[in-house]
Design brief:
Largest interface: A-B, 48 and 48 residues
Number of helices of chain A: 13
CATH superfamily of the largest domain in chain A: Response regulator
Radius of gyration of chain A: 26 Å
CATH architecture of the largest domain in chain A: 3-Layer(aba) Sandwich
CATH topology of the largest domain in chain A: Rossmann fold
Shape of chain A: elongated
Oligomer: homodimer
Structural class of chain A: alpha/beta
Largest sheet of chain A: 6 strands, parallel
Number of strands of chain A: 12
Strand order of the largest sheet of chain A: 2-1-3-4-5-11
Chain lengths: 345, 345
DNA sequence: TTGTATGCGTTATCAA
DNA sequence: TTGATAACGCATACAA
């Protein structure tokens, strides 16, 4: 690979002049500039990012740390973020924390040592030590989806309390009283918020929450299946379920299929987050969706702003999306369920 | 961030000794080794990868270039690859070519300038110049999913001809003669292979291929919807469809839904590639699937082998997966279709 | 307007 | 067994 020396030699100038010229300095004569450009082209010169990074103390890379790269919500976010960042000459280093705080921290340390220009992070960190570590990082950072208590950083995500509240209220107005919540990981911000939204709405309608109907998962399909199975085989099964995310809802639907339980006739199902396959699953899911592209765009914008010289002075910003309700065919009134059971053999 | 100098100062040795010691050289006394390790720990030293990369001429990063980061097939592959590479201390730089050869080449140039240790590439390159460029790259590379004609490199993917042949044969044996093919991008290797498999099987059974029933798409859902719509509104619509990938099949299914066409009663649908939602879509898709994790594992192994000192001498290897047939409810015999239409008002 | 020299943090060569 | 020094490729302060 051609280096700056090759260009300098060919253009018969010093390497500093080449550097100056190629970085658009004013103080280079039009004549030599042309010579240098020609030389650079003819040897196919492009600066070594490693050398630039070493010199500058940071590289033109952005780290993206997510819990599950195969989750459609995150993979769409990644797609969009990469798409936007590439236009700003940033490369995206992606790493999966697997929802594990220890691993997440290890990744962050690696990214920090790589001198990435910024990090987009969907954090699963909760312990005070880890939060302190986050604070100690002097790298532009934007949190997406999950907020971290005690860490004031840019954040882009939806109003999670509202999201589960919307679904819960709808189910209650549909006549349900015995509603289960397929929740996310305990302690995780989004999970807690969604849980709170569920509880608050139940309380607002004077309904008691059966704690045994709140089962936690890791936002993955397998656990969604298992936890749903657990609640569905009970004689006092719920008449409706609020799933904390799309993939767990899918697992729950699968469980109903396997048990032969009709959705929505016997059990209504609702979920937070859209998925590419939502339109063709049967029944169509009733859900509240976040505009993942909007999240990606705002996160990218926040991050790029922070990488500017004045970026460090920007006070933490937040962009909270209002989730959108999408009515499907996965909910029905429990009256129907009762009559369905009556008519069963 | 602490540098090697800090460690040297604290341990009261020269930086070269520190480097020697920390890189596990034999010729460092146990005593000084201990001192150096303690010093390194106490200042929290970790070597600067940028400096290491500059010195070594390559960085501990692997580039992964895919057409669509949101396609579940690719996102699952990415997940698995990242998962395996992180254990080998490699970071994954991911970039989307969007199926565009020009962009793909630009990305490859960027990755090359970054001195990545290797590249996993799902290539959409076809032109001789671009192929020549691929050949000129002196970076360990493994092709996945798509082969590149004229470029002998490691390859991991499935037998695409066989994949579409399996579906086509099944449909023919079911009684179909008027079969459409929702194909991939013309000129693209997998697309051509799948197309060939379809044609060869049709020919083997003495069936003529209606060229107007071979419509090409870019493996994306939108185009799948549009192209399917195009063939489904025809009075002489096909009785069965072989979709070249999962996402396009999804689009086709959506089109049937919108038109009120029953699947499989009126039109049978089959697809190549699994998807996380395949079990809960209605009807369950009949498909041939590739084990994407196996692809990821083999690709990673091939690549890591190539990054070893002896790696360059390994002759190009291939790992061709035999696709697996998965019977769903999305196919029926055209007899049924006829009777269905007869019974229609 | 251009050139010289230094340093970014490592590794490696050669001396000591 | 350890240390001084060069080199990787670039950007920049300072000289000319």
């Amino acid at each position: 690979m051609a280096t700056i020396k090759d260009v300098a030699k060919l253009a018969k100038v010093s390497i500093s002049t080449v550097s100056l010229a190629l970085n658009g300095s004013e103080r280079v004569s039009a004549d030599t500039l042309k010579r240098i450009q020609d030389a650079a082209n003819s040897v196919g010169y492009s600066p070594n990012p490693l050398a630039q990074g070493l010199k500058a103390g940071r590289s033109r890379m952005i780290g993206m740390v997510l819990a599950d790269l195969a989750n459609p919500f995150y993979s769409q976010m990644l797609k969009q973020v990469e798409n936007l960042l590439i236009d700003h000459q940033y490369l995206v280093v992606v790493a999966s924390s697997r929802g594990n705080a220890k691993r997440e921290r290890a990744i962050l340390e690696t990214l920090a040592s790589q001198r990435v220009s910024g990090i987009i992070l969907s954090s699963h960190i909760t312990s005070p030590e880890d939060v302190a570590y986050l604070k100690s990082l002097k790298i532009p950072m934007v949190l997406v989806d999950h907020k971290v208590d005690g860490f004031a950083a840019d954040f882009v995500g939806c109003d999670n309390r509202m999201a589960s509240a919307m679904l819960t209220e709808r189910l209650i107005r549909e006549g349900h009283t015995r509603i289960a919540h397929l929740a996310g990981v305990e302690g995780l911000w989004t999970a807690e918020e969604r849980n709170q939204g569920f509880r608050a709405t139940m309380a607002a309608f004077g309904l008691e929450v059966d704690e045994s109907l709140i089962l936690h998962g890791d936002y993955d399909g397998d656990i969604g299946y298992k936890q749903a199975m657990r609640m569905l085989v009970r004689p006092d099964k719920p008449t409706a379920v609020v799933a904390a995310n799309n993939v767990m809802a899918l697992g729950a639907l699968q469980a109903m299929r396997d048990l032969g339980i009709k959705c929505p006739e016997e059990v209504s199902l609702t979920a937070i987050d859209d998925a590419p396959w939502s339109k063709v699953i049967e029944p169509k899911m009733t859900m509240v969706v976040q505009d993942v592209n909007e999240i990606a765009e705002m996160a990218t914008r926040f991050l790029i702003d922070r990488t500017t010289p004045a970026g460090a002075d920007i006070p933490p910003r937040e962009h909270i999306l209002v989730p959108q309700f999408v009515l499907g065919q996965s909910i029905a009134s429990p009256v129907k369920a009762a009559s369905f059971q009556d008519s069963a053999p």
